[in-house]
Amino acid sequence: MEQGPRILFAGGGTGGHVYPALAIAEAVRRLAPEAAIAFAGTRERLEWEVVPKAGYPIHPITVVGLQRRLTPANLLFPVKLVQGLVQSRRLVRDFDPDVVVGTGGFVAGPVLLAASQLGRPIILQEQNAFAGMTNRLLARRAAEIHIAFPEARQAFPPEKCVLSGNPTRAELATADPDEARRFFDVPEGAAVVLAFGGSLGSLALNTALERHLDALLADEHVVVLWQTGDRYFDRLQARVPAHPRLRLMRYIDRMDLAYAAADVALCRAGAIT
């Protein structure tokens, strides 16, 4: 059997970086079932959980984010960067990809830089109208830069840009609303309000929803699905009284079902959201 392409994905930290990579991988697998696909990611971040669940191997890369303001953590950045580059070069040599695709996030930096240094073509995918730091720094090394919004062109060499939109997973369009409502235990005839601020959560959205939750639940036909995000869940769980029509969740794994169940969605203006 003819050997398929070998593709390494690097992107993570938040759902906005992880899920586009998974959507592209899903499309590749449909078009070329024989393709060898692997991911690079950071332990204890979102990708470390969701990528294996999707059926792909993931390899650990040590990385810390560079804070925009001066912090003690920034003192570790050069050391961690070198460590991440060494790991990335080893991964690129061992996996031997035909192309490396970066979807943003700090982990993409050392992997894409190592791939470029070793002569492997790299492709960037930018989800936002205003490009992220990692993609801006790596743009001149990229063979192609796929953008979701025309405004992103101003951050990149325009001749490398391809306006291709944001990749989304097929199941988001095919989820069954009846199955979704059973999954979230929604009574028949209820109206579902879905509230979420991305995988990390949104302080502004959570604060507003906490303030107006009683008014929402005053209508006996309303069910609220509330994804708080990891950093806000413990505090809100302690503050918000339990209610039979409130589903308070740290994170929603099945966003396809959440979208299918919802009549109204309250969300922040994230790229993939």
Q: CATH homologous superfamily of the largest domain - what is it?
A: Glycogen Phosphorylase B
**Overall radius of gyration:** 20 Å
How much of the residues is beta strand, in percent? 15-25%
Helix content: 25-40%
Name of the level-1 CATH class of the largest domain: Alpha Beta
The residue-averaged pLDDT reads: 91
Low-confidence stretches: none
Question: What is the number of strand segments?
Answer: 11
CATH architecture tag of the largest domain: 3-Layer(aba) Sandwich
Kindly list the characteristics that best describe this protein.
Rossmann fold; seven-stranded parallel sheet; 10 helices; 273 residues; globular
Overall description:
The protein is an alpha/beta fold. The chain has two domains: 6-163, Glycogen Phosphorylase B (Rossmann fold, 3-Layer(aba) Sandwich), CATH 3.40.50.2000; 173-267, Rossmann fold. Helix content is 38%, strand content 18%. It has ten helices and eleven strands. It has helices at 15-31, 46-53, 77-95, 108-117, 133-138, 171-174, 177-183, 203-217, 230-239, 255-261, and strands at 6-10, 36-41, 58-60, 99-102, 122-126, 144-147, 161-163, 191-196, 222-227, 246-249, 264-267. Strands 3-2-1-4-5-6-7 form a seven-stranded parallel β-sheet, sandwiched between helices. Strands 10-9-8-11 form a four-stranded parallel β-sheet, sandwiched between helices. α2 (46-53) links the parallel β2 (36-41) and β3 (58-60). α3 packs across α4 (108-117) and α7 (177-183) packs across α10. It is globular and about 60 Å long. The mean pLDDT is 91.
